[in-house]
Amino acid sequence: TASSALLSDDGLKNDLFPEILRDEAVARLYELGKVSDADGYLERTFLSPASIRAGNLIRTWMEDAGLTTWMDGLGNVHGRIQPPNASNKALLLGSHLDTVVDAGMFDGALGVISAISALKVLNVTGRSRHLKHPVEVIAFCDEEGVRFQSTFLGSAAIAGVLPVSTLQVSDKSGLTVQNVLKENLIDTTEENLSQLKYEADSVLGYVEVHIEQGPVLEAVGLPLAVVKGIAGQTRIKLTVRGSQGHAGTVPMSMRQDPMVAAAELIVSLESLCKRPQDYISSNGPDGQCNAFSIKSIAGSLVCTVGEISTWPSASNVIPGQASTQIPLVSFTIDIRTIDDIGREAIIYELSNQMDTICDRRSVSCIMERKHDANAVSCDAGLNSQLKSAAYAAIKRMTGEDIGDVPVLMSGAGHDAMAMSHLTKIGMLFVRCRGGISHSPEEHVLEDDVWAAGLAIHAFLDTNLLYSIRDGLQGVSKLLSTLTNSIILILVLSSLVEIRLRLCRVFSSDSEELLEDDSLNFSDFSSVFHGDSVQYLTGFGDQCRDWFNVQDLIR
Ligand SMILES: NC(=O)NC(NC(N)=O)C(=O)[O-]
């Protein structure tokens, strides 16, 4: 087996563990990539039958890596290693097991599998016994937000920022989150949802590996990068209602056509997001927009209309009659930028444009904000450890000194955003072919899967294991405690001796007794008890204080 091959290797310390970190990890990615609710393409949304199957598969791989596993009250799959003598603060590693529709097989899955593989290496080499902290891998149930337009359901629950009202949000078929949990025999209610939250003082940090989903790493020819921060995002649903009619009979000048209103809104959104500086130089909400935010918006703003639906959706009908509750023309808007104030300014401007366009076209428009997440920064300390780990992994694999590991911003959202409400976060990006993601064309080289696993292994090995240095530090701490205690005893006994002698000099009535060299503390206390205390002069009060100290020592 891979494990016995590893253990029989001569240079175990220098081994790159390709059997586990590359071959097995890649095989598992392909196996998981086939677990789908759809025939012919990959689709695995929150708590769908395929996502339950995927969760069970992940549990078997976690158990194979020596982790204790469970599924929580929202469908997140956990695997934990709790070494003896470890402190109670756990390092959390993870990513998500859900996918978009017609997805690639690496988005989310790579982060879960590379974490499991790295822990498997620690397990088979016996080094997991030396972990200073528990390590937990979490495969989050919902990051893409496809089914409920919610995003981060699992990680937000663990971070304690999931509103209880989310349990009543419905999917397209009318099932609520709570219904779907019940269908899967998970009894999560508004009362017990908060029990999923982890306490901040039980967590050391959260680290996530994810494919870059952009083209930079491929362009610079490197497999790994560290993530500096993640852009904030807002998801909006915009509904346009007009007047339904016959395509052949209603004159163009008499139409209230929601479809063309939607088209104009979409085109104006494109202009706004391509050149935000032309629109929001001075009219941000409450004048918040300053020159800096306009510059950062212009550099990072992206807006997308990804989903559109119409009713009744027929070629010879102008959509628009409110005869049913189904929205007539509705579409989604996804807005992202690293500048949170700038994002608000864009939404404000969009809303003004919507009012103008919809008034002019005599249709009614409603904008609903479905999801907001502010931009987050990754922790500088974790990032520097991840950077060293990525550097070491690439150096060991290629023998090359790559110089600095790149540092990138993430335009894609990640569970780390929700986890940042609980603990410090760090992320590693892995190169993907052409930067393509959310597509079956998504691809990661086998060696890059290996580099990711090796980097996480190096990160754990360097930062989470007891080292010889820790051992030596422990011994030296023990020695210094012992030495300090001995010094304290010596100092105390010399103080006793000095005070005895001083009291001997300054006390009159007790002089004879004090001159007796064989005097011990109890003799001394009997002398100064009661009336004899009043005969002390000069140092008498201090002798009395000292006397009390002796009582305490006894
Ligand atoms: N890594 C992702 O693809 N995340 C996606 N999902 C969320 N929630 O952001 C996205 O749209 O960027």
Automatic annotation (TrEMBL):
The keyword Signal applies. InterPro entries: Amidase_Cbmase, ArgE/DapE_CS, Bact_exopeptidase_dim_dom, Peptidase_M20, Peptidase_M20_dimer. Residues 232-326 form the Peptidase M20 dimerisation domain. Gene3D superfamilies: 3.30.70.360, Zn peptidases. Keywords: Hydrolase, Manganese, Metal-binding, Purine metabolism, Signal. Belongs to the peptidase M20A family. Homodimer. This is Allantoate deiminase 2.
